[in-house]
TrEMBL record:
Coiled coil: none annotated. The gene is LOC122148743. InterPro entries: NDUFB9 (IPR033034). The keyword RNA-binding does not apply. Transmembrane segments: none annotated. It is a peripheral membrane protein. It is found in: Mitochondrion inner membrane. Residues 85-110 are annotated as: Disordered. Belongs to the complex I LYR family. It comes from Cyprinus carpio (Common carp). This is NADH dehydrogenase [ubiquinone] 1 beta subcomplex subunit 9. Keywords: Electron transport, Membrane, Mitochondrion, Mitochondrion inner membrane, Respiratory chain, Transport.
């Protein structure tokens, strides 16, 4: 067992350090890359889509049709969501940032809108 451990250690040493390229390639999105964690600044808030010109919206008809349905559903469900939050929040304040789940089949969880409309994690 001791010999196997020593051979493994020597192999790791050779693989990781002795044969490493002097100037390794770093992918732009990986740690140390030129665009690591920079995509956060390109995320536009959701309300910016309200100001798109109709010709721009016409390029994505499916998304904007679904978005209009979401907006109507948000207006309809807002009072129930706030009421649920008020009922389930303790008197001394929330214990964590976790939101409560939907309580009935077919209902929406509180503040669902921010998850449905969030932008991509990484731009393509």
């Amino acid at each position: 067992m001791m010999k196997a451990t020593m051979m493994l250690k020597a192999g790791e040493e050779e693989f990781f350090w002795a044969n490493q390229h002097p100037q390794p390639y770093l992918f732009p999105d990986s740690p140390g890359g030129t665009s690591y964690e920079r995509y956060e600044c390109y995320k536009a808030p959701e309300w910016c889509l309200d100001h798109w010109h109709p010709s721009e919206k016409a390029m994505y008809p499916d998304y904007f049709a679904k978005r209009e349905q979401w907006k109507k559903l948000r207006v309809q469900s807002w009072d129930r969501e706030v009421q649920q939050l008020q009922i389930e929040t303790p008197a001394d304040g929330p214990k964590s940032e976790a939101l409560p789940p939907a309580r009935k089949e077919g209902d929406l969880p509180p503040l669902w809108w921010q998850f449905v409309t969030r932008p991509r994690e990484r731009p393509m």
